[in-house]
Amino acid sequence: MARSPLEVADVLNAHGDSYMARHRGHLSRGQLKVISAIRACRTAALGGHVARCEACDHVEIAYNSCRNRHCPKCQGQTARAWLAERQADLLPVPYYHVVFTLPAPVAAIAFQNKAVVYDLLFRTAADTLLTIAADPKHLGARIGLTAVLHTWGSALTHHPHVHIVVPGGGLAPDGARWIACRPGFFLPVRVLSRLFRRLFLDRLAAAHGAGRLAFHGELAALADPAALAAHLAPLRRSEWVVYAKRPFAGPEAVLAYLSRYTHRVAIANSRLLALDKRGVTFRWKDYRAREGAQGREWIKSMTLSADEFIRRFLLHVLPDGFHRIRHYGLFAGGTRAAHIARIRSLLGPAPPTDRADPQPTHDEPPAPACPCCGGRLVIVERFRAGTQPRAHPTAVIRIDTS
User: Fold this and answer.
1) Helix extents (H) in 328-400
2) How far apart are alpha carbons 73 and 242 in whole angstroms?
3) CA angle 317, 318, 320 (to 5 degrees)
4) What is the spatial distance between Cα 236 and Cα 232, in angstroms, rounded to a whole number?
């Protein structure tokens, strides 16, 4: 299927002004910044440079990127640098993938209290894994893990959950040996689910008692502690979704997975199909229809009004300074390198690989090749934000040059 040239920026350019006018006073500063950044990304508004081919005088203009973490066009370079750093940390052991999801009644509270509740989700999911892994009845080891927050479902609905990648084992309490989990099995999902549920609800109630939660609109009544307790009571008896996927097929598969998940935004430009008088049409995955579906029948298209599309996209703007990738246990803080070195020494030398070592992230990228003759493109002019270059291009491209 050919890639659509349509971008989220096109939707915001066509309908962003009217959306902001209709919802004036109801948009956060962060949401306004995201709209502005995506609209300006890789345009003359952010400046750029002019490159000329040394061989054939072909000229290209490259505009700077906005580097906003919610922009669909700006995550590739950041993800590559992050993954290069993580590759050095990979251990020669099986890795597991565990997903912790908030139930809908809690997700509604999370939307009005993003910083507090998303942080609780991170810490409680991590503490659940660390606690059960440390229990001698299960693994009896200290583990390390990397967690990534996603707040969306495939249809751009609000669906907060954390994806966690964890090696299949950990250090013995005295640090003297590596304890591996059973082949193909990390920790019991039901045990994880029950502890996650209890810890999260207790911590949510504690946050409410400390005055850290705010409620408005349809949830305003939950400001009363008794009302919140009644609202959460059924959740103490329901099953919470903790999903353990099959182990990865080696450390390289872990990197491939992380490359897709760590710096993902709510919707990629490649999923957009059309922008017309009906609204915005995009591809989405109907996971409920996946069971029994033939081929790719569960991958469908959806059309939303432009106003609703923008509203859903902005649901997933994170609070300023909020970290959506976090490390816990053996991988946390300044002890990370020492713990990884200790584990490597216990596991012995890694098996040889035919793959070339990745290039250091501080190396300069190779000069781009001319699309006309393959010659070397050389920067001949830089222009500042809001100005136009003096040179006239043979072609215009939009690449990240900042």
Assistant:
1) 336-347
2) 31
3) 120
4) 7
